[in-house]
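Hi P.,

Sorry for the delay on this. The queue was packed all week, but I finally got your sequence through. Input first:
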Amino acid sequence: MPAYFLGIDGGQSSTTAVIGDETGRVLGYGRGGPCNHVAASEARAKFMNAIGGCVRQAAEAASLDLDTLEFEAACCGFSGGPADKDALIAELFRIKTRHVTHDALIALSGAHAGQPGIITIAGTGSISFARNAEGKFGRAGGWGYVYGDEGGGFDLTRQALRAALRMEEGWGPQTSLRAALLEATGAAGANDLLHKFYTPDFPRPRIAALSRLVEQAAEQGDEVAADILNESAQQLAGIALAARMQVFTPQDHTPVAYIGGVFKCQRLLDEFRRRLERGGNTTVQAPIYGPAAGALLEAYRLGHLTVTLSGVPAEK
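Then the structure:
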């Protein structure tokens, strides 16, 4: 009887499901809405609808009946961690063996096609995660926007606003970041913008999205913006090296993959690569697969299968 495996990537903006057979061939792919919060009743319904909808879409694409299907194994990775989600997954699907985990693990697995390596994620926040050939894990960063997330999009915007405030108060250098931030938000001044950022009108992802202004200013020759990008690259390289030291030796040849909107900034990515590769045993590379494919690979691992994926769609 055929065996089917399920991988789910549940995030703050969307949910992706991938179904594969026992050979590693991807049979179906589905996408749904965000599912990272489940505490309130409305959020719970949103979670169930997003997960159920994208898995049903993937099952239909694979010509499988989800109502009668029992998965051999499933791995589900969620932004914000696995708390309170395992029981909901059990309600939704029939799965022989399941593992509900955080999104960094599935990003790592997808980035290196299930092989040892390191992933550094820099979106709204930041984290670095590593796994060696013995299956030992290392982690650095990911401590949230108050105490950590250095080098992430929110932190980049925070540093830009700090620079604008210092300039406005007369104790910091001139920078075009002030004018760029005010124009993008309609704020009357840097202090006014600071107060806007404390309101519900500016949730963290919206603030993080303004980090693109730092790149634009640096490209136009703004030295303050360039310094912010270089410092962020250094911090992201730092958490990658910290995760590396936890599970790899200095002599190990170790690949580091990157994922997240911050790395779309070529200047920052180049500096991140330069800092990591100067030691000689670390190489920086783009991810091989996305997190949903990584979740599927972890499902195969749960089923004690070693496969090479085929027919993997590009993850949006």
